[in-house]
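Example S7 (structure tokens).
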């Protein structure tokens, strides 16, 4: 039996980088992080630098197409097997999506298809659900509409604040993305997760 090479990942970030930290802390034989790219200066970049991972900032400018092309070119430069959106708060355009089709994944703090978008935890609580959770899914041209890869349910407890619930979801989200990355394989240019 031959050993497979570690999957090379590029990670897109925008914020504090707690999800990125879990990805960095668990890289090894299954996957390694080749590049971290942010759309703004953020704590996540420092986490990557502390781990010895190259970083790049592609600040969003007024021209969406040009920004997507710059982002695409920066990520393509490391030839990643997979691109992970880990708290990246930008919608990716066709210039980027077409280049990495079948290799783009995202984490989301809800059980998709319920509660897509940037306010999933708030929306779930407002709806009064008793169970929510986290999803890892492929990225497509929609907002959180890509094929679901894995999910983990999280119970909403009596008296939960939005912050308390979100923190519990994040704990499961970190474990789920690491599990998904550890299972990743490349088949005909597409990432699959047996």
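Recovered sequence:
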């Amino acid at each position: 039996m031959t050993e497979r090479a570690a999957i090379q990942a590029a990670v897109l970030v925008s914020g504090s980088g707690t999800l990125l930290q879990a990805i960095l802390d668990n890289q090894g034989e299954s996957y390694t992080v080749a590049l971290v790219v942010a759309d703004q200066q953020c704590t996540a970049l420092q986490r990557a630098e502390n781990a010895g991972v190259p970083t790049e900032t592609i600040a969003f400018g007024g021209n969406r197409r040009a920004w997507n092309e710059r982002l695409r070119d920066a990520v393509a430069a490391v030839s990643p097997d997979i691109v992970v959106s880990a708290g990246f708060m930008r919608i990716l355009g066709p210039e980027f999506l077409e280049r990495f089709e079948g290799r783009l994944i995202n984490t989301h703090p809800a059980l998709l298809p319920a509660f897509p978008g940037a306010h999933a935890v708030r929306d779930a609580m407002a709806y009064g659900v008793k169970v929510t959770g986290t999803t890892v899914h492929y990225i497509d041209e929609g907002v959180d509409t890509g094929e679901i890869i894995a999910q983990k349910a999280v119970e909403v407890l009596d008296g939960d604040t939005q912050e308390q619930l979100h923190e519990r979801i994040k704990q499961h989200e970190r474990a789920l993305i690491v599990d998904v990355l550890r299972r990743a394989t490349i088949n005909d240019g597409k990432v699959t997760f047996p």
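Notes on this example. The chain has a mean pLDDT of 94.
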